[in-house]
C-alpha cells in the first residue's frame, strides 16, 4: 500500500504520545487514514524544541507542536494542502560561512564537514567502499598498481616518494606476514590536515589502507595517531568497529577470500615518531628512535616484516583514484607533482584554515586568493612551509608554483602541508631560533651531529637574539648546519638546519642587524627592544598597569604612566591593551 | 617529564594495572599500550607501578623507564586537577603564545611544569594541538580555547575552580 504523505513524529518531549494520538484521531476523523501514514522517529533534528513533526514528501518541519497544533496541521496541511506557516521550523539566521575559494579543488576533503564521520552509511552514500569492492572483485593487485602509477600520486607525508613504487616494493618482498601502517603522527607545528581528514572522513583512509593491504598481501594494519588528537582516535575506533560490523574489515571481505583487520595505536608525544622507522619502533612498544635505511620498511619494517607505510592523506586519495581513474588524478597538478594537496594556512593571514588546492598553484594565490591576504593589510615577509624541517620562502618567490621540486629548489620542502605566513612583524632570527628549539627538544639523541649540533646552533641563535651575537656567528651556523645535514640518520636531523639556513640565505641582513647593531628590525627580540609610554598620548586609564605581569608600570589614574625598563620583561601586553596606542616600542 | 613520586603501590592501583595487563599483555608491542592505558586511567606512572609492570610483563625495568622518559606524554607523578597546556606551535608562537605563558605564570604563581599548591592547576607547554586557525590556543583539560588573550587568562581560569 502506498501513501500520499507520511508524517514523522519525533519522540522527544513528554507530549509526543499525545501529539501522535491527536494526529491519528484527526486523520481518522477526516478519513485520511488510507492516504497518510504516521511514523515514529527518534529525532528530526531539533530535539530541543519538542514535539517535532515532519511532513513528507513536502519536507516541512514543525517544532514546538502541541496536540491542538497537531489537529490544525492535519486539517490545514494534510487535508487542504496548506502548510501552517506559524508553526513551521525556520532556520535560525546565522552568518553564512565564507565559501571555499574558487581556487580550491576538494578530493581528500570532499566529504569532510559534509558527512557524519561516525556513521558509515553516510560514507557509503557518498560512493564509499565502492573502490574497495571494485578492487577486490574485479582487479588484480598489478592492475591497482598500474592505476596508481598512472595517477602519479606521491607520498603526502612530505618526501614525495611515488606511492605505486612503494606498494610494488612491498608487494615484491617475499614473506607471508606483511603489514600496512598509516602514519597519523602529524607533528609539524602549524599543520592539521591529517587531523581533519581522520576526524571528518575516517572511512576514506580505512578504505585506502585495505586496498593497499590487498595489493601488498597484508592481513593486519595499524593506525599510528598522535595522542594530541583524542577526537581523531575516537572517530577512528568507531569507524573501524562499524566497518567490521559491515564485513568491510575482518575475514573474507566482499566474499573475495581476503582477510584484513586494523588496530589503532597511540603516540605519546614524540615528534620523531613521524619518521617511518621510528614510528614502527614505537608501535613495537620501544623508544621511537629511527634506524638506518636500507633496509627500507618495504623489505624489513614492523617486527622485521615487509611493511607499507603511507601518510593519512596518501591513503585518503586512493579510493578516488580507483573510482575515477589514474588519468583523472593526473590531469590535476604539474608534470611531476600530480593531484591536489591539503595545506593548513596559519599565521598572519586573514583566513586561516584548511585548504585543498591543485599542486602547481602559486604561493601568491594561496596567500592572497585563498588566504585572503595578510592580517591588518601588513606587508608579507615570508611563508614557512614544511614545518620544522622546512624553510622560509621570501617575497621574491611569491609567484613560484607549489610542488615538490620547486619548493626544494629554494631550500624548503613540501612537508606534510604546514603553511605558516609571516608578516613584517615577524623576526626571522627569532623564528629560526624557535624551530631550532623545537628540533633540539625533539631530537631523539641517537646521532651526535643532531643531538649536539642542534644544541650548539640553538645556543648561537639564542645569543644572537639576546644581544650577545658576535661576528662570525652566521658563518658558524652555516658550517654547523651543513655538518648536521650530512651526519644525521633521519629526516629530522637532515632537515633540522633548514629553517636557519634558509633564513640566513634570504634574511641575512636581519641576522647582521642583531649581531652588529644589536637591533631587532621586527621589534620582537626582547633583549634588543624597549617599551615606552608616550606621556602626551597616555590618557591614564591604568589598563596597562593592571595588566602588566611584573608590575613594571606606575602612574596615577588620569595621569601619564611610566614603564620601568629594568623591571619590564617586554611581553608587549601593555601595547595590546592600550586603547589609544600610546605604548611604543623601539 | 616531572619528578617521580615516591609513593607505594596502592591496592586500587594494583587492581587497575591487573585489569590492563589481563587485556593487553599478550598483544604485540604491549609496553607502550600498557603504559598509555595506565596513565589514561591512573593519571601517571609512578616508580612503584613501573616496578610492578616490569615484573608482571617480564620486561626489564630499564626498558619501561626508557620508554617513559622518551615520550613527553608520560609522567611519573600526579598532576593538578586541571591541566593547562599553552600551545607553542608555530602559529601560536607567532600570534602571541609566549605572552600567554607569562600571564599564566603570573596568575598561578607557578612555572611551566609545576602544579599549584592547592593541586588545582598544572601548567604545561605543548606543541601544536592542530587548532592553528584559532591561534593562540590554550588547552585546559580537553577544552580548546582559541584566540586567547592575556587579559582573559584569569577570567577563563575561574570556570575551572
Question: What report would you give on this structure?
Answer:
The complex is a heterodimer of chains A (586) and B (161). Chain A has 586 residues and is an alpha/beta fold. Chain A has five domains: 83 residues, 3-Layer(aba) Sandwich (Glutaredoxin), CATH 3.40.30.10; 211 residues, NADH-ubiquinone oxidoreductase 51kDa subunit (Rossmann fold), CATH 3.40.50; 84 residues, Roll (Ubiquitin-like (UB roll)); 89 residues, de novo design (two linked rop proteins) (Up-down Bundle), CATH 1.20.1440; 56 residues, 2-Layer Sandwich (Alpha-Beta Plaits), CATH 3.30.70.20. Chain A contains 21 helices and 18 strands. Chain A has a five-stranded mixed beta sheet. Chain A has a five-stranded mixed beta sheet with strand order 11-10-14-12-13, with helices on both faces. The longest helix of chain A has 19 residues. Chain A starts with a strand and ends with a strand. The mean pLDDT of chain A is 91. Chain B is an alpha+beta fold and 161 residues long. Chain B folds into two domains: 60 residues; 77 residues, Glutaredoxin. Helices cover 44% and strands 11% of the residues of chain B. Chain B starts with 10 loop residues before the first helix and ends with a helix. Chains A and B meet through strand 10, strand 14, helix 15 and helix 21 of A and helix 2, helix 4, helix 5 and helix 6 of B.
Please render the helix and strand layout as text.
The complex is a heterodimer of chains A (586) and B (161).
Chain A: E1 5-10, H1 16-29, E2 36-41, E3 53-56, E4 60-62, H2 67-79, H3 120-125, H4 130-138, H5 141-151, H6 163-172, E5 179-184, H7 193-200, H8 202-216, E6 220-225, H9 230-245, E7 250-253, E8 258-266, H10 276-283, E9 307-311, H11 312-324, H12 326-330, E10 340-347, E11 353-358, H13 363-370, E12 380-385, E13 391-394, H14 404-409, E14 418-423, H15 428-442, H16 448-465, H17 473-487, H18 491-495, H19 498-516, E15 531-533, H20 543-547, E16 553-554, E17 562-563, H21 573-577, E18 583-585
Helix pairs in contact in A: 1-2, 4-8, 4-11, 5-6, 5-8, 7-9, 8-11, 15-16, 15-19, 16-17, 17-19
Chain B: H1 11-24, H2 30-42, H3 47-57, H4 61-70, E1 82-87, H5 90-94, H6 97-108, E2 121-126, E3 138-140, E4 143-145, H7 153-158
Parallel strand pairs in B: 1-2
Antiparallel strand pairs in B: 1-3, 3-4
Helix pairs in contact in B: 1-2, 1-3
